[in-house]
Amino acid sequence: MSITSQSDVRWSGSNNRSSNRRNSQNRPVSEGIETTYKRSYRDANSIYPPFCRKLELNIPDYIPEGDIEFPFEDIDDIGDENKIRGNWSSRMDYLLSAVGFIFNLGNLWRFPYYCRISGGGSFCFCYIVLMLIAGVPLLLMELALGQFPSVGCLSVWKVVPLFKGIGIAMFMVSCIVCVYYSAVAAWTISYFINSFKFALPWATCSNDWNSMKCSVWNRDSVASCFLQNGTLLRNGSCVIDKEYLSGNSSILEISSFDIDEHVLPSAEYLHNEVLLMSDRFDKVSPINWHLALYLLIAWFIVFLSAFKGVKSSGKAVYVIVIASYMVLFVLFVRFLTLPGSITGLIYFYTPTWKFLADLTVWGTAAGQVFYSLLCCTGGLVTLASYSRFHNNILKDAWILCIVDIITSLFCGALASSAVGFLCYELELPIERFSFKGGAQLIFVYLPEAIAKLPVAPIYSILYFAMIMANITMETIVSAICDEFPERLRRNHRHVLAFSCVIFYALGIPLCAAAGFYWLLLLDYFTTTWTLVLLAFLECMAISWAYGPSFLSSF
After folding, report:
1. Which residues bind Na(+) (predicted)?
2. pTM given for the model
């Protein structure tokens, strides 16, 4: 049966606002209950999975929280606007919001690293293939699940209560992602504020937080110092006076940069100044209250952006998403004009075909597909739930997947060109560069490369402004409000405020000295094979409940 040919039936809890419908034999589904029927809508039983109709389950018993409600006007005369829950103001609002959702840390946090260790272009090939054969169908299914019933990731499983645990798992994953994404946003705000200084603090080794291993190496400065027969110090300064050196034994000289012996100033800035990181997992130490303040600012920004619901946030994404892609393009073009960047691109994207026979690479690529799309976190279901009923989700699924592929490749190109330029400046072979992903890439390698650019503070401001726009609370708030519509749907702002306070409190432990280690654990165990497992269970549940023809009608 074609779902798009049915009336716009939505789910919500209600006691008196709707009556029980008649079944296909024109009999009441529940004795003793008055029934009514709207001619403009078709049989309500048709929205149920085939196995439910075969079991002849009664609607009141099947949905204990409430009846089926028809919150839409007659779609033949007026349209399919959701008068109760609201819709996106336009399709462009929805698409840009979805693009902003998938343009997340996953594109820059992991993709360049996986590309580096898994054969370069070979990993890209695996990623694109799995995106087309697994990402598009899964994305289509999640958009359909959200758009048709018009509820969040929890209430959508009322149609198959047996599998509601999948929705709960998606909700929990979304909560955990919000917690540690907000911590990353707090780090970003710290960098963003310090980017307004004339000299970037992570560009030198003359600060209080720097250790004896901190070393600055700039190719042009080193060449100039050696031409003057001077002595280069680890803090980047050049000493010509030999008598000054002989009278000061505490001065540390440097003749070449060794990635194993020396430490980049940007690494020490992240570990010793921003995070106040301990050297042990269980050494909590005091809370970094500067970071806790930045975390509060991050959640306040989230609250303001979602205060008036999707209609206001849908307008904000025009600026946020378009500006983010513009910054990404500007940084890539700037690095592309620098020496060493082409070498980095060639090294990172040259395929090593033997990796195609490694199942681990394919598994890693599958995990990256789900992580970059943030499938099975409830976000896509929530965004689609605000779409109009007859929106073309097949076209949306293809657009979003193609945009995600381009974004991931673009982020990988930015990282590889920046690392290539950094290796050129450090006079270090790119094969010996200890490339790591995650926080090392975003907060060490890229800031270090940006610090070596002319007018570095301007590029730094643009870069960290792009990183900041990565938190969304609408998934969580919508899921809670849709689960308890009578009590909470009209109090959306109160739920949003309460959720922001709760998640701020949950994020404070990540501001501790060992918070960085805990964040890595949350990131690894929440968004790797967990998403793959949830995707498998979700596909099995929908296929068993609706049959193979569920999505073929779109």
Report:
1. 100, 107, 372
2. 0.80
pLDDT at position 75 over 60 = no
Q: What is the pLDDT of residues 354-409, one digit of tens each?
A: 999 999 999 999 999 999 888 888 888 888 888 887 888 889 999 999 999 999 99
Angle at CA 523, nearest 5°, toward 351 and 193?
Answer: 95
**Every domain of the chain and the residues it spans:** 91-202+266-546, 218-256
Residue 194 burial (CB count, 10 A): 17
Output the DSSP codes for 138-173: HHHHHHHHHHTT---TTGGGGGSGGGHHHHHHHHHH
Question: Contact, 423 vs 346, CB < 8 A?
Answer: no
Taking a C-beta distance cutoff of 8 angstroms, is the pair 119, 361 a contact?
Answer: yes
Residues 6+ apart with CB under 8 A from 490: none
What would the mean pLDDT of 203-214 be, rounded to a whole number? Answer: 84
**Nearest one of 152, 150, 147 to 164, comparing CA atoms:** 152
> Binding residue per annotation — 247?
no
Give the pLDDT confidence of 458-492 residue by residue, as tens digits. Answer: 999 999 988 886 656 666 776 777 667 667 767 77
- Cα distance between residue 128 and residue 158, in whole Å: 34
Q: Is 107 annotated as a binding residue?
A: yes
Record the tokens describing residue 89, joined without a space: 């103001």
Q: Residue 31 — pLDDT band, cuts 50, 70, 90? A: very low
- Burial per residue of 222-256, b for 16 or more beta-carbon CB atoms within 10 angstroms, e otherwise: beebeeeebbbbbbbbeeeeeeeeeeeeeeeebee
First to last CA, the chain: 10
Task: Please give the pLDDT value at position 9.
Answer: 37
C-alpha distances out from residue 191 to 161, 184, 206, 275, 464, Å: 46, 11, 18, 11, 7
Whether the predicted pLDDT of 18 surpasses 70: no
Check residue 136 and give its pLDDT: 92
β-pairing, 238-239 vs 231-232, is antiparallel
Cα–Cα dist 541/376, whole Å: 13
pLDDT tens per residue, range 44-67: 444 444 544 444 444 333 333 443
Question: Is 87 known as a binding-site position?
Answer: no
| Residue 159: how many other CB atoms lie within 10 Å | 22
CA–CA distances in Å: residue 298 to residues 190, 277, 468: 11, 21, 8
The angle that helices 474-483 and 164-194 make with each other, rounded to 10 degrees, is: 150
Q: How far apart are CA 217 and CA 266, in angstroms?
A: 12
CATH 1.10.4160 fits 91-202+266-546, yes or no: yes
Q: How far apart are CA 391 and CA 513, in angstroms?
A: 48
In 3D space, the residue among 492, 85, 479, 472 whose CA is nearest the CA of residue 307 turns out to be: 492
3-state DSSP: the chain helix, strand, coil percent, rounded to 5?
Answer: 60, 5, 35
What is the separation of C-alpha 487 from the centre of its chain, rounded to a whole number of angstroms?
30
pLDDT of residue 473: 60
Q: How confident is the model at residue 412 (pLDDT cuts 50, 70, 90)?
A: very high
